[in-house]
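Late entry, fe (ii) ion complex.
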Amino acid sequence: MSSTSNHLPVEFELENGQMNKTHGEFLVLVEQLSSASDEAFALTFGNFVTHTKKHFAEENEWMFFSKYPEYEDHAAEHSKVLEALMSMQSQVEAGQLTNAKDWINNHASEWFEHHVLEMNSAFCNHLYGLSSEAAALKKTRDTDGTNESKLEEV
Ligand SMILES: [Fe+2]
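Prediction complete; structure with ligand written out below:
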């Protein structure tokens, strides 16, 4: 598969196009890992962790600059998951795939569904209730959908 964008099932679509694009990429990477050979899994799990780091950092930035009241709880959830993934990455690099494969195959989809429909959905409700920030983010999405937040310029 050459593109990892636009693979987000409609039930997970939120107001923010960049967030949807990143979430679609997350699902594609999970799908690729879930069907990978052990060798391919070991070679590509790090890419998934790197993508997730960027994904969470971007959301944290949006939450921070939009003064989201639930910022700390949501960012703490990101940190918890990222710490677990980084631990798994260390294991994978040492040739131990069991925990990482278990998370990808048995927990990633459930975590994603809950996180998007509960936490990210609540954040988007906050974000698009704020007129100036909403306008800035919608402008970013509408122009190319690939840039990072422009909230700090508002
Ligand atoms: Fe999130």
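The pocket of fe (ii) ion is lined by residues 59, 74, 78, 115, 119-120 (CB under 6 Å). Will revisit in the morning.
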